[in-house]
Amino acid sequence: MIKIAIASALTLAAFSASAQMYGEIGVTSVKYEDTVFGYNAETSPTAIRGVFGYEINPNFAVEALAAFGMSDDNVQVRGYTVPGVKFKVDNVFGIYAKPKVKFTPELEGFVRAGFAQSKGTASLNGQSSSASESGFSYGLGLSYALNPKTSLNVDYMSYLDKNNSTATGFTFGVGYKF
Predict the structure, then answer these.
(1) Global pTM value
(2) 9, part of any domain
(3) Residue 16 falls inside a structural domain
(4) Which domain holds residue 79?
């Protein structure tokens, strides 16, 4: 019994030693598209995005994501800007599994797969309407380690793909391991 307890403690210590928490912050250019009255409407607001992650081992992590709108954008239909209509990302919250692989000691590639809830607001002449959707979310990206604690990151994410609505985005950011 003592041997099992010692073996369990050593296994837990080894697991904990390889685990590491990290955070990332970045700016996302969101491309939102929707079908309105049979026409494709699109807009590209910006958001600030934060990720908090827990590295379980060198090839797998779990993450929580939160993004908040920084700026709104005009809405275009069939290539024409609709006068006075603006769209803003209110927020995005998600949770992800993150398999990853090291290509070099500095360069890492990764995939994210999980679930996200997105909320946005469209406005016209002081009137606004908000909507929320949730569902499967995924992405892929690269991380370049500047040193053992700091990295530069870029990724492409699909935050929403449901009911003729899509929200995708590129994020450029910086990460830090605690």
Answers:
(1) 0.85
(2) no
(3) no
(4) 21-177
* Number of domains observed in the structure of the chain: 1
Q: What is the pLDDT along the chain (178 residues), one digit of tens a residue?
A: 555 545 444 444 444 455 699 999 999 999 999 988 888 999 999 999 999 999 999 999 999 999 999 999 999 998 899 999 999 999 999 999 999 999 999 999 999 999 999 999 999 988 999 999 999 999 999 999 999 999 999 999 999 999 889 999 999 999 999 9
Q: Does residue 12 lie within any of the structural domains? A: no
Which residues 6+ apart lie within 8 Å of 147 measured at CB?
none
Q: Are 54 and 62 in contact (CB under 8 A)?
A: yes
Are 156 and 137 spatial neighbours (Cβ–Cβ below 8 Å)? no
Structure-derived torsion over alpha carbons of residues 152, 153, 154, 160, reported in degrees to the nearest 10 = -150
What whole-number distance in Å separates Cα of residue 178 and Cα of residue 173?
17
CB atoms within 10 A of CB 143: 20
The CATH number of whichever domain residue 97 belongs to comes to 2.40.160.20
The residue among 51, 55, 53, 52 whose CA lies nearest residue 17 is 55
Pairing of strands 107-124, 80-102: antiparallel
